[in-house]
Specification:
The chain is an alpha/beta fold. 54% of the residues lie in helices and 10% in strands. Helix 7 crosses helix 12 and helix 9 crosses helix 10.
Length: 280
């Protein structure tokens, strides 16, 4: 349990904001522990003592691995206590086991921890929450502050692309997506690219289009106007008339909108059922 303003309890739901985002302002030391772990009970007080001593020079984030198994697996935790130091959204130093205090101090030196002013650095905005709430402008601003448009990790670039696509800003989103290669992020980028293509095409082919093409472009124009529901209705109308429109482009654009909104979105749950009823 957290015991001071410099020691916080973190869960899978708050890991992005409290660890990754916050580490761009101040080093965050993550202590992976469990109530049954004897060595954890030895190391924990040492870490908490140093957190108080450094007065906000770093934030100690405690993660109970019994209650947050997924994030522990994602970070490769195989034994506890395990400690990972984050700076600028990345792991900068780490160790395993209940090491003595001098070794912990040496670990903090690797993170370039300095004694703080006594005020814990505030957490950055929760970008995932902003995206889930459809606050695209705020999410874009937060992601740009995180350096998403300039050499950031692929996951951050993907989130910026989502925020841009939801606002109809296709050109920059397309450039970002084309620069995401390798790993699971590349597959996610591939899923989003059809929407970037639709938005780009909709800005240049509004006149003289056939009925179905016009309806397809209208979907892109609705996205640019902030009407994602209207865009999905237009794409469903296209698919009702031609399920294989342009070799599946309308269906792919619909799935890309789902990816922009996120699987937990009520709109996605509603329109996934509608899409299935049209296609099958």
């Amino acid at each position: 349990m957290a015991k001071s303003e410099f020691v916080i309890d973190v869960t899978e739901a708050t890991f992005q904001a409290e660890v990754l985002d916050r580490s761009r302002q101040v080093p965050v030391v993550v202590d992976f522990w469990a109530p049954w772990c004897g060595p954890c009970r030895m190391l924990g007080p040492v870490l908490e003592k140093l957190a108080a001593e450094y007065k906000g020079g770093f934030i100690l984030a405690k993660i109970n691995t019994d209650e947050n198994q997924r994030i522990a697996m994602q970070l490769g935790i195989q034994g506890i206590p395990a400690v990972k130091g984050f700076k600028d959204g990345r792991i900068a130093a780490e160790f395993v086991g209940a090491v003595p205090e001098p070794q912990v101090r040496a670990f903090l030196q690797k993170l370039d921890v300095k004694v703080g002013s006594g005020a814990a650095a505030p957490a950055g905005p929760d970008v995932n929450a902003l995206l889930a709430e459809g606050k695209w402008i705020e999410a874009e601003a937060a992601l740009r502050r995180m350096g998403a448009a300039n050499g950031a990790e692929p996951a951050v670039k993907l989130n910026l692309a989502r925020a841009l696509l939801a606002q109809g800003k296709a050109a920059e989103a397309d450039a970002l997506l084309n620069n995401v290669t390798g790993g699971p992020e590349e597959a996610a980028a591939l899923q989003l690219r059809p929407l970037a293509g639709l938005l780009l095409e909709a800005t240049t082919h509004t006149n003289g289009a056939g009925a179905l093409d016009g309806l397809y472009y209208a979907a892109g124009q609705k996205i640019a106007g902030g009407d994602l529901r209207g865009a999905m209705d237009a794409l469903l109308d296209v698919l009702r008339k031609d399920k294989k429109f342009r070799n599946g482009e309308a269906r792919q654009a619909m799935l890309a909108i789902f990816a922009v909104l996120g699987e937990d979105s009520p709109l996605v749950r509603e329109y996934r059922g509608k899409l299935a009823s049209v296609l099958f």
